[in-house]
Design brief:
This protein has 109 residues and is an alpha+beta fold. 32% of the residues lie in helices and 28% in strands. The longest helix is centred in the N-terminal third of the chain and has 15 residues. The radius of gyration is 16 Å and the shape is globular.
Length: 109
């Protein structure tokens, strides 16, 4: 039983270190958009790489984030779109046209 528990901890530790630099940057950028950046919780993170018209690789990170409000309570998960190389962050609850942005950039997610 201890061996199984050790394997689970080891696997979780190894998988936690598998995030790309773009995902880490996107998480930091998205966290900074929240009222309490240290409270950010992420799920369903996807990194999408596409080639632009100029043959350049464009990386978009899509996912969901939850954070605390001014009263210290979590507000619920909302989707986000981040382009780490250009420091752009779009939060679902902050953009009227978010659905079209999500479908354009995160369609592979």
């Amino acid at each position: 039983m201890k061996a199984l528990a050790g394997m689970v901890v080891l696997t979780a530790t190894l998988l936690a270190g598998c995030e790309s630099g773009d995902i880490k940057k996107a998480k930091a950028d998205v966290s900074n958009e929240l009222r309490d950046p240290s409270s950010a919780e992420f799920r369903n993170i996807n990194e999408i790489k596409k080639t632009s018209v100029l043959e350049l690789e464009v990386v978009t990170v899509c996912g969901e984030v939850n954070g605390k409000n001014a009263y210290g309570g979590y507000v619920g998960f909302q989707r986000f779109v981040s382009q780490p190389k250009s420091d752009r962050v779009y939060l679902e609850n902050s953009w009227n046209t978010f659905d079209s942005l999500w479908s354009r950039h995160c369609s592979d997610a």
